[in-house]
Design brief:
The structure holds 2 protein chains of 2 kinds.
Chain A lengths: L38 H14 L3 H74 L10 E11 L1 H9 L23 H5 L2 E2 L12 E4 L2 E9 L4 E5 L6 E10 L2 E11 L6 E4 L12 E4 L11 E9 L8 E6 L8 E9 L1 H12 L1
Antiparallel strand pairs in A: 1-2, 1-12, 2-5, 3-4, 3-12, 4-5, 6-7, 6-9, 7-8, 8-11, 9-10, 10-11
Chain B lengths: L5 H14 L13 H13 L4 H14 L7 H20 L4 H25 L7 H38 L1
Helix pairs in contact in B: 1-2, 2-3, 2-4, 2-5, 2-6, 3-4, 4-5, 5-6
The chains are: A alpha+beta, B mainly alpha.
Chain lengths: ~350, ~160
Amino acid sequence: MTMFDYGPSSKSRDSGYMPNRGYTPNRGSMPVRSSIPPLGLMAMLLAATIAMFLPVSQAAALKGTAARLFLPGQRQFARARDWTLHQVELLSSARGISERQSLLAEELRRLKSRNCELEAAFALSRLEHDAPPPDGIPLLLAELVPARVLGRQARVFLQRTDLIDRGGNSGLFTGDLAIAGGGALKDEMPQIDQGADGALAVDDLALAGRRVWGRLSEVGPRTASVRRMTDVGFREVAQVAHWDNARWRATARGVLEGTGEPLARMRMVATTEPVSVGDYVLATSVDGAVSAPLIYGCVARVERGAGKTHWDIWIEPAVGPDEPGIVSVLRLSLNPKRAGALDAKEMR
Amino acid sequence: MMKLFLVPAVYVAVVLDTSLGSALDVGLAAPDMLAVVALIWSLTIAPVRGYLVTGVVGFVSDLVSPGRLGADMACYAMVGYLLSLLHTRFGSRRPLVSALWAWPAAAILVMGPAMVRRVMGEVDIHWVALTVRGLSSATYTAAMTLPAVCVAVWINRMRRRRQWV
């Protein structure tokens, strides 16, 4: 018997009994308390005392039984802990793989840039080793000027240092006022870190290897803006050609136009000319100075409108939408040997 | 229904106590999972004679502790009895009140057996160190009890309200 003995009447609702809480006292009539602890507690303490003085062997047997009882749970727990640690390890290794992947991506980007440089150098060496014209000395020399494409932050920095990418080619003179604003088109066009100080000029081609990325539209003292072949306002005569038996076979010429879309457009190619998807579009503006073909891109789509006499040709640029890190600007100059010979003739 | 969870809870507590080692220790304080279970039981769902069950939990604690049997059993039974006495006297199982009772109860559960074993010469530790360690462990144990006590009290209230409705 406990010292709190609730009678049957105390379990009624009126007397304060609450379901699931049989211990709740009746405030109106407190249970009778005895100074003697309840029998259950006494029995429990007695059992504890007996257990305390159990012989060691019997206590050890009891503990051994308990240990065997809890052993499966401990094994399961150890297994779960190992599994969790393994998962954490996998997670951390996955993070490591991700970091390594980003490092490799960076390395790939660097190698691609390097590859572009090497392609440009190779193209240059081919230009140098090309067969000379009949008189033995070419009139024009092509030179590749490497330049880095400036990112947005670099452009902002240059703007902060009050450098503008306009120069004498734009009709500017010392003392002219610089007015802020109106640079939306300039912001859209990528810029490179070479300008008039690198002897670059407007309309020089910007190359990524042998692929044409665009044309210089503005040349400042230290920087230049590049109008990509897909930008609005880009117009250039180009030639359709296909690669056949390790030789270029030119088919038709037309006008390449940037549309502001991912694909450029080629017009003025008569429907009598054979054009097919996959044909290459080559630059013609440097013919005579460069013997190796410079590629604008490939024909992606060819259509002919009803009653039209010209193809509608869409060109996929050879340089993708991502800006190349490093480009080469093709700069033409007079061959000094020819100039020297001319001077010598005049002297004679 | 909640009483049915006591057996697996005790089992899990023993497994955690014997498998975790010092993983959950904070400084000198180490939680006593069986004490946590016993406290939650006593503070929330134990009936009038719940101290008998608490004593059994104490006996389980004896079985997985080094030294003689009985010390934990006696301390757990007494704590269970005292808590049921307090509940009866004050008639409340509010979370705040339970929180106030949890710390001294945890102190008895943690320090009582340790003191008994110190008196019987089973452990050789200075009384001051024992007291500091016991009090910090009791604080830790009581703190671990609180969230479960709050949830259990809330569940009990919901059930009671539903029954009366």
